[in-house]
Amino acid sequence: MTIPSLYLPATTIKPTHITLPGSKSISNRILLLAALSDNQTEIHSLLNSDDTARMLEALKTLGVNIQSTAEKLLIHGCHGQFPNHKADLFLGNAGTAFRPLVAVLSVLGGHYRLHGVARMHERPIGDLVDALRQIGAHIDYEQQAGFPPLLIHPRVNQDQHTISVKGNVSSQFLTALLMALPLTQQEHVIEVTDTLISKPYIEITLKLMAQFGIQILHENFSRFFVPACTSYHSSGSIHVEGDASSASYFLAAGLITGIPVRVYGIDQHSIQGDVAFARELEKIGANITWGKHFIEVSRPASQPILSFDLDANHIPDAAMTLVMIALATKQRCRLRNIGSWRVKETDRLYAMATELRKLGVTVTETADSLSIEAPEKLNTDVHIHTYDDHRMAMCFSLVSLLNTAVYIDDPQCVNKTFPDYFQVFASLSNNPEATFATTEL
């Protein structure tokens, strides 16, 4: 089989300003909330990617009236009930679309089949299904128990108002419940039965629900109180922040090279937890400038990049970028509490460890941690397998900033969240002769 491969030469960069694409996490949440609202919503700066395309396709299949122009998207809300009560929905590998739609459709009732690519059928969903069944959801597994594809049937309304859900696999399960339960018009309490991972993503959910008129109270992220007799109502117009996870690659470039790199679309007031990535960079040698709608990173030539041992549970996606920064330190670095990487677009712990070893890096992989120690000189011209995972491709592009040429196999996987990533990355280059040509493996 022929696999396209992108060659990235050893690259230096120039001072650069980057405008970020919209946040995937925010985009798909807003699309669903707007579709469920009792009024119209204009959405600006929506991410244009595979994941948002899957959500839009699903909403249109469910009967939502959506109009688009170059500047905005107009969604006519369905007043908390989709017009079509029967549908077959293909959602690719978009967890931010799949999990919330499972919960919403289970609560609203109807006959639906939800499925995706092979990897989506390997990503666990049993904890969400178990939680929904507590309130009478009728969900069947089409193949393996605990995993998609799913068949959803009309719900049997039960007098159950306290729901327990596990929080140690994916915060998207809790997000899905929070977004769906207001549609019942009944009061509910959600109890998280163990340690909740990725709390910043729950904060995104709560803040966006508040923008659509529903306030959720909670006790230290362990008990959540969903009010009765509420409905989603938008302000009429909403702007999507730039993607903070995507910002991490360019912010890291500023730290690794010392050259100032500014990203527009986020700032210190962003609702995304991954802006904390910039604060972690500051701890290990970066100069951070926080501006209005931008963050800039650089590093004095006299300041080395420091090693780190970090509990990265608060920035699970951006933490992948720290692995590339670890290579620049030439010291032993460690990321802990990243077990959620195992159930992402691929098993990211395994994938990261495997590809790092190709570069000559000493790696220790555990169930939920990664220790990295780079050699003085990395192996060059290595082919990086990306596992159909956009973040693997974007992370390993940074190897080219470490005086090491690298091939990125299947670079189109970035279409999931950042289709023109490599064009934007090329714009950083200070090398007139640098080429980013696609080759065939």
Topology:
Elements: E1 4-8, E2 16-19, H1 24-36, E3 40-44, H2 50-61, E4 65-68, E5 72-76, E6 86-90, H3 95-108, E7 111-115, H4 126-133, E8 138-141, E9 150-153, E10 162-165, H5 171-180, E11 188-192, H6 199-211, E12 217-219, E13 223-226, E14 237-239, H7 244-257, E15 261-264, H8 276-283, E16 287-291, E17 294-298, E18 309-311, H9 319-329, E19 333-336, H10 348-358, E20 362-365, E21 369-373, E22 382-384, H11 390-397, E23 406-409, H12 421-427, E24 438-440
Parallel strand pairs: 2-15, 3-14, 6-7, 10-11, 18-19, 22-23
Antiparallel strand pairs: 1-23, 1-24, 3-5, 4-5, 7-9, 8-9, 11-13, 12-13, 15-17, 16-17, 19-21, 20-21
Q: What does this entry look like structurally?
A:
The chain is an alpha/beta fold and 441 residues long. It has twelve helices and 24 strands. The protein has helices spanning 24-36, 50-61, 95-108, 126-133, 171-180, 199-211, 244-257, 276-283, 319-329, 348-358, 390-397, 421-427; strands at residues 4-8, 16-19, 40-44, 65-68, 72-76, 86-90, 111-115, 138-141, 150-153, 162-165, 188-192, 217-219, 223-226, 237-239, 261-264, 287-291, 294-298, 309-311, 333-336, 362-365, 369-373, 382-384, 406-409, 438-440. It has a four-stranded mixed beta sheet, covered by helices on one side. A four-stranded mixed beta sheet has the order 2-15-17-16. The protein starts with a strand and ends with a strand. The relative contact order is 0.15. The model has no long low-confidence stretch (mean pLDDT 95).
